[in-house]
Amino acid sequence: MAGTWKLLRKVTEKKYDELKDSYRTSKLERVDKDLPLGLRINGMIEVPEVDFILGGNDLKIKYPGSSSIVKSYGMFPMGNVRVHRFYLDATDNVYMLQIVADENNIVQECKLFMPYDEVYPDDWDFWLSAHDGYIGLEIFQTKDQTQYFRVWDNDESKTVVEEDAQGNQLTRIPPVPFTEKIYLDPYGESVETVEYDCMLYGRHVNENVDEYLLLAAVNEKDGASVQIMVGIALEPSSLKVI
Length: 242
Hints:
By secondary structure, this protein is mainly beta. About 10% of the residues lie in helices and about 45% in strands.
């Protein structure tokens, strides 16, 4: 991983020894109780490789390895659901497992993401302008010209940015704002708060696999940046939690 992504490195590098102060922690309630799939900080998860094999070399997200450790946990509400994020210390990279669950804690969506690129903008209007900011346009293109198409949509807030000679419209919707609390230990004694303006994109890699791209303006205490993550949908039942 490059010399950026300070927060992601932090949430996976922090070490926590539960035995070091067992008396004190026994008086505290864990923040990772009763989470989807039984995931918890310091627990282990095994991700199946089959979708990565089906995606082949065209898939930008790479297989994290057979097992990863959950180093920290984040959460935020979005409408009627809760979004749970588990930050994984994998073999060669940091990964983020994002699980969306309803009010009954039933999993509605499960995606695995890894960092792809990060930008420190001089011109934030290019990314966040209410009229034509890049975050929220219907198409996002990576540096190697790979195109991803907007997945989230909102007809009520959609605006037309421009039209081409054939009358085809390029539209934008505002990015989705949310604030995530990231717990760096099982008892919530060390917490990071991160603000996002985010949009989800996707593409068909082949007839078997879709790949997603999460584009976000991120504001945290170490600074602000535009972060790009690539991801893949996983079947919750295929994950093995240890």
